[in-house]
Amino acid sequence: MRLYDSTIPSGNAYKVRLLLAQLGITYDVTELDILATPSETRRPEFLAVNPNGRIPVLEFDDGRRLAESNAILYYLTEGTPLLSRDRFERAETLQWMFFEQYSHEPYVAVLKFWTYWGGLERVPPADLERWRQRGQQALEVMETHLGSRTFFVAESYGIADIALFAYTQSADAIGLRTGPALRAWLERVRDQPGYVPIKADPLGRVP
Fold first, then answer.
1. For residues 158 and 19, what is the distance between their CA atoms, to the nearest angstrom?
2. Are 92 and 183 in a shared domain?
């Protein structure tokens, strides 16, 4: 099994790394320089792996490949305690994973990227304000949902938590605000068996 990752810490690739660690699955890694010009993910050799030109991609020993971080999470947890067997709870899991990709990641992750690697001073003020506003709105939705809950679905740690943890853990560092329920949940995720932190930034730009 091979994971196509980036040289800088990617929250989307980290989701897969964290899950593989918690499932005890060994794998090889190919790291791509997404800051190169052009990005190594946009060059022909990688486009042959994923025509969408994005990481992560998980390549299986039989040659099949699966892209999109949340699809990979869903596939790997089939039949494990990290994905409920209950039909409604599985739909709830997907609900939060779709929320992460549509309402959370496009703002929190993008703000993180431009803050550390993209040259924030070049971002039009209107775009920056939109990222901050909508990212904060997503965090507030999560804060409200958690309330007195332990995890996002059925009081049990699962892939909805992994999907949302990857970028939420950076929110305060990039100027967003996490509430007490979110901060307590972040610590519960870090306390899970097999937890591994996101990898260090080789460029030293991420504290």
1. 10
2. yes
Asked whether 7 and 56 are in contact (CB, 8 A), the reply is: no
pLDDT tens-digit map of 1-35? 999 999 999 999 999 999 999 999 999 999 999 99
Residues 31, 29: Cα–Cα separation, whole Å? 6
CB neighbour burial string for 8-45, b if at least 16 within 10 angstroms, e if fewer: bbbbbbbbbbbbbebeeeeeeeebbebeeeebbbeeee
* 67 lies in the same domain as 91: no
Lookup result for tokens 């969408």: 52
- Partners of residue 31 on adjacent β-strands: 5
Cα–Cα dist 151/196, whole Å = 18
Report the distance separating Cα 152 and Cα 149, nearest Å.
Answer: 7
Residue 80 tokens read as: 């494990």
Q: What is the mean pLDDT of the chain?
A: 96
Residue 39 lies in a domain: yes
Asked, for residue 140, whether it belongs to a domain, the answer is yes
Judged by phi (left if over 0) then psi (alpha if -120 to 50, else beta), residue 58 lies in beta
Residue 207 above 80 pLDDT?
no
Show Cβ contacts of residue 139 under 8 Å, excluding neighbours closer than 6 positions: 104, 108, 168, 171, 176, 177, 178, 179, 182
Q: How far apart are CA 129 and CA 122, in angstroms?
A: 13
What's the angle, vertex CA 129, arms to CA 9 and CA 171, rounded to 5?
35
